């Protein structure tokens, strides 16, 4: 479930006048899954709060990095068992009794499927079409007056049997995770009526019943499913993935003309006299779910992004193979275009505007391109005027979602080599490197090979060293974009675009680590030349 399709809220209040309580919660919306955990540290235990925090953080991190070959049920039960055993054994070692004890509620959303588990008496509810139902099952005594006595909790015994369930999700569903501090104070009707207002509203409503002096720690997490994830339907469609495709082959009326990429999965094709580009999923997607997910994501992005920066993309309704269609953009890849000679300054400025405007369009949808580079940019013509098109959809992802080295090493910001996520700043760096290369035919820090750990200690040479036609103001913009210190680099696309559009307001870029001579190399040469000329004249006059 993507961030565009889901909304979350969480809130917690400690009991009475205490500043902190024993509850702990966390919600993590990731690219492929959403995980929410609420733990209520058992108050009678000396380390209940610690157990609640550790359990929450362990489960979030473990599910984020779970083996893709494991089912979600196996993952949830395995990780719950692991952290339970750690809590129990540490309690025995440190206290010689059960003190790291907490309840647990956990939900995982993957695609349109809800997975849940609980240990103890914290609860999970689902609100759908006016109905409000408890999905979890309390581990507590049934006898009257003993309802608060737990029959199971995390860390209470060496082994634990969580209550586990699964459900399909629907658009407009609301899921509530809460500690007993909430449902002991609010009726099911009150929770159902307030769930759409979010977690803070529910907890504060409970607090007001006691004049903001709650008798127990109270926590709520609310997850709203705004709409179902369209990527799941794309993935589940039964489509053919051939091992290879051949010239002249006809797929759903599209005749394959010639391959455009070496792996023979992207072809120029023709239908009814019109040329298109057809892109097939890799053959490995049959067995490898990760590869399939990447292609489904690419198809979804291509269909979704309707703007002049990209070729138009469609998914034929009656396709029999796993592919999508793009309009054919006749032109030259920028990498090939600049191999003969650098871009002119005017085209370099237009390229900067194109990349920044495209990136702004994406960030408004919480997206980043992730692989800005000359190979992915086509130089084409519109009404005899040179324009640019971005032709790669495969790397587009949600901002802040990737913490890998996804992308092309020479264009990755230094912080990306240290597992930093993709942000506006890392994209600005890639734009800066692209401009530097387009205008100089060189990389600011040299070409970086895959799996290399590059050093960014040395400052890049100023681009005017290779192309003296670059105006000082444009050089300053490029150098700020590729600044290794994120405090000095542009923070936003709009900031960089403003300076591109207002050259007179660009402040000169000076690297503090450079000497005066390095910062003012041309001026030093000119002063030296004039000085030598004057000395030569003096020498002629007097000698």
TrEMBL record:
Q: Which CDD domains match?
A: PP2Cc
Coiled-coil positions: none
| Residue ranges of every copy of the PPM-type phosphatase domain listed in the record | 8-225
Molecular function terms, GO-annotated: ATP binding; protein serine/threonine kinase activity
Q: Which UniProt keywords apply?
A: ATP-binding, Kinase, Nucleotide-binding, Transferase
List, alphabetically, the GO terms of the cellular component aspect: autophagosome; cytosol; membrane; phagophore assembly site
User: What residue stretches are annotated with the Protein kinase domain?
Assistant: 189-510
Q: Which PANTHER family match?
A: NON-SPECIFIC SERINE_THREONINE PROTEIN KINASE, SERINE/THREONINE-PROTEIN KINASE UNC-51-RELATED
What name does UniProt use for this protein?
Protein kinase
């Amino acid at each position: 479930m993507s961030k565009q399709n889901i909304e979350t809220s969480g809130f917690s209040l400690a009991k009475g006048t205490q500043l902190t309580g024993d509850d702990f919660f966390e919600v993590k919306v990731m690219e492929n899954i959403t995980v929410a955990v609420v733990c209520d540290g058992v108050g009678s235990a000396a380390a209940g709060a610690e157990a609640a925090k550790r359990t929450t953080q362990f489960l979030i991190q473990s599910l984020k990095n779970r083996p893709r070959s494991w089912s979600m049920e196996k993952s949830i039960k395995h990780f719950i068992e692991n952290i339970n055993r750690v809590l129990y054994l540490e309690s025995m070692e440190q206290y010689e009794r059960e003190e790291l004890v907490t309840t647990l509620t956990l939900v995982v959303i993957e695609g349109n499927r809800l997975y849940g588990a609980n240990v103890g008496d914290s609860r999970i509810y689902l609100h759908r079409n006016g109905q409000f139902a408890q999905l979890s099952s309390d581990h507590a005594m049934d006898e009257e007056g003993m309802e608060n006595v737990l029959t199971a909790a995390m860390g209470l015994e060496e082994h634990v049997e969580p209550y586990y369930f699964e459900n399909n999700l629907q658009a407009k569903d609301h899921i509530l995770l809460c500690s007993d501090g909430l449902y002991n104070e609010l009726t099911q009707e009150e929770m159902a009526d307030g769930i759409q207002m979010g977690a803070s509203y529910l907890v504060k409503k409970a607090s007001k019943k006691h004049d903001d002096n709650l008798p127990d720690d109270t926590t709520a997490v609310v997850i709203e499913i705004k709409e179902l994830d369209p990527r799941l339907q794309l993935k589940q469609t039964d489509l053919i993935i051939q091992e290879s495709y051949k010239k002249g082959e006809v797929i759903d009326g599209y005749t394959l003309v010639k391959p455009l990429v070496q792996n023979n999965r992207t072809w120029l094709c023709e239908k009814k006299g019109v040329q298109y580009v057809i892109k097939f999923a890799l053959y490995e997607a049959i067995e490898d779910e990760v590869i399939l997910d990447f292609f489904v994501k690419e198809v979804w992005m291509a269909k979704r992004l309707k703007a002049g920066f990209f070729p138009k993309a469609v998914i034929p309704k009656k396709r029999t193979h796993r592919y999508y269609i793009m309009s054919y953009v006749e032109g030259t890849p920028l990498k090939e275009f600049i191999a003969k000679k650098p871009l002119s300054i005017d085209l370099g400025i237009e390229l900067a505007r194109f990349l920044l405007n495209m990136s702004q369009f994406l960030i408004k949808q919480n997206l980043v391109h992730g692989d800005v580079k000359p190979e992915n940019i086509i130089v084409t013509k519109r009404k005899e005027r040179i324009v640019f098109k971005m032709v790669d959809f495969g790397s587009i992802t949600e901002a802040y979602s990737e913490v890998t080295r996804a992308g092309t090493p020479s264009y990755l910001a230094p912080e990306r080599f240290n597992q930093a996520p993709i942000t506006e700043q890392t994209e600005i760096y890639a734009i800066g490197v692209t401009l530097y290369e387009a205008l100089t035919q060189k990389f600011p820090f040299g070409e970086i090979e895959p799996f290399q750990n590059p050093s960014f200690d040395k400052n890049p040479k100023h681009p005017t060293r290779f192309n003296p036609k670059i105006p000082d103001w444009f050089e300053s913009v490029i150098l700020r974009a590729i600044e290794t210190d994120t405090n000095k680099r542009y923070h936003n696309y709009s900031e960089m675009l403003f300076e591109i559009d207002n050259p007179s307001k660009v402040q000169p870029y000076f690297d503090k680590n450079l000497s005066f001579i390095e910062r003012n190399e041309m001026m030093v040469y000119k002063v030296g030349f004039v000085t030598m000329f004057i000395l030569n004249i003096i020498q002629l006059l007097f000698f």
